[in-house]
Design brief:
Blueprint lengths: L1 H8 L24 E4 L5 H6 L6 H10 L3 H4 L5 E3 L9 E2 L2 E2 L6 H12 L5 E5 L1 H8 L7 H6 L8 E4 L7 H6 L2 H15 L4
Parallel strand pairs: 1-2, 1-5, 5-6
Antiparallel strand pairs: 3-4
The structure holds iron/sulfur cluster.
The site of iron/sulfur cluster has 14 residues, from α5.
Length: 190
């Protein structure tokens, strides 16, 4: 795993397309139990090099019912975005994760992650990649259908403040899904 993480940290595959340069941000340990497949680092995480070190991370930790020490315990959580480097800004927010990253690295990572038994799929990029034709037409439908993907996968929306309107429109997410998510996470902390 250490060798693989070092290889990833030296990856330059997308260098010509990354306005802010390469800076892969992820965290994984051979004993990780839960994989969190996110989208890509934002500008803050690109600077700090700490996964989910922003408002989205604060909300995600609240959903999971864990504090920062639990969240950054790599023996519990592997933090693996679809794209490991900050893709830069587009017209309507951050650009999508680089499409080269997951096919190049995810399978190799999962080969060394033998104790993972729950995979949280955050956002539509992760859901489409991992659920393939099991994903519904929209993220809302996929997340609403979350029980169909358990026990292996649990799809979630992105916790970004940009999605606050979605959270207001979909109160079932807090009422129905979050309690299930917290119960799942609790099982690994006893
Ligand atoms: S996004 Fe992934 S594939 Fe692209 S340079 Fe960064 S680590 Fe390499």
């Amino acid at each position: 795993m250490e060798k693989l993480l070092a290889e990833i940290r030296n990856c330059k595959t997308c260098l010509p397309f990354l306005e802010h340069g390469v800076h892969p941000v992820l965290s994984a340990h051979p004993k990780s139990k839960i994989a969190i497949i996110g989208q890509a680092p934002g500008s803050i995480v690109h600077k700090t090099g700490i996964p989910w070190d922003d408002k989205s991370g604060e909300r995600l930790r609240d959903w999971l019912g864990v504090d920062t020490s639990g969240f950054y315990n790599a023996e519990l959580f592997a933090l693996i975005p679809m794209g490991f480097c900050y893709p830069g800004k587009g017209k309507s927010g951050d650009l999508p994760p680089r499409g080269e990253c997951a096919p190049q690295w995810h399978k190799l990572l999962f080969r060394s992650l033998n104790e993972i038994d729950l995979i949280l799929l955050i956002g539509s990029y992760a859901q489409k990649y991992y659920l393939n034709d099991r994903a519904k037409n929209t993220l809302t439908e996929t997340v609403q259908n979350f029980e169909a993907y358990l026990p292996k996968y649990l799809p979630l929306p992105h916790p970004s403040p940009r999605n606050n309107i979605w959270f207001k429109k979909n109160p079932w997410f807090n009422d129905d899904l979050i309690p299930v998510l917290r119960e799942e996470i609790m099982r690994y902390q006893i």
